[in-house]
């Protein structure tokens, strides 16, 4: 059964890169994976697939304005990565912004997720930093089987938690179950000081210039399939931690499946 994983975090925490990297790892066993975003400040499709030009007609926004969520209509809004046929992306495209569409409706988002769950193994939602401003993100954080929460190792990350977590106090958001990630760590990052304020994290991801540059170029995924493609030590360490994070996500999915089968 398909599983939905929400990636949420502070600005600059690398949540999008982390989300895409985990998605790629999940395809290693021929799992079919989609990464979805309705970010209107920085439309996601040109970020995920910088070498492809995608028309508005094939945007996620166009789909969510319709009433047809049959997979035959959804499928042409799934944009495959050129180097990985098991990985697809959905999002807004170049030129679209907050004025392009009316607010996306919760019931349509749920219909879309149900359609995708019948065809794909994993649905990864690249959430907006402020979920109350984005219905997809808010719905994902509520309905996801698991959420990965990323913050930066600095006061900005701490302040993000202090201002955003109180908005998700309802038990339906299951914030106590979030997989906690401290991301973009540099040698000078005050990791111990941050942990004293926030508690420990499940994963610690180093900042890698190599990973960042490859993501901007759209070649990060290809790099993860060839270990030697990562030129710096932090890139290799990052890849190792992402592999562990992907395994954790799969374990959560397997545990939830076992629970469902015994209910």
CATH H-level homologous superfamily name = P-loop containing nucleotide triphosphate hydrolases
Query: Could you tell me the number of beta strands?
Result: 8
- Main structural class: alpha/beta
Mean pLDDT: 90
Domain count, please report it: 1
The major beta sheet can be summarized as: 8 strands, mixed
CATH topology category name: Rossmann fold
Helix content: 40-55%
Q: What's the CATH C level?
A: Alpha Beta
* Parts with pLDDT < 50 across at least 5 consecutive residues: none
Strand % is: 15-25%
The number of distinct helices, counting runs of at least 4 residues, comes to: 11
Strand order of the largest sheet: 3-4-2-5-1-6-7-8
**Judging by the overall fold, what is the CATH architecture?**
3-Layer(aba) Sandwich
**Strand and helix order:** EHEHHHEEHEHEHEHEHHH
The gross shape turns out to be globular
Our Rg estimate from Cα atoms comes to: 18 Å
The end-to-end span amounts to: 15 Å
Domain AAA: 4-160
Pfam families: AAA_31 (PF13614)
Protein name: Cellulose biosynthesis protein BcsQ
Characterize the structure shown.
The structure is a single chain. The protein is built from eleven helices and eight strands. 41% of the residues lie in helices and 16% in strands. It is globular and about 50 Å long. The chain has an eight-stranded mixed β-sheet, with helices on both faces. Helix 1 crosses helix 11. The two termini are 15 Å apart. The chain has a single domain (3-262), classed as 3-Layer(aba) Sandwich (Rossmann fold). With 263 residues, it is α/β, with parallel strands linked by helices. InterPro entries: AAA_dom, DNA_Partitioning_ATPase, P-loop_NTPase. Pfam families: AAA_31 (PF13614).
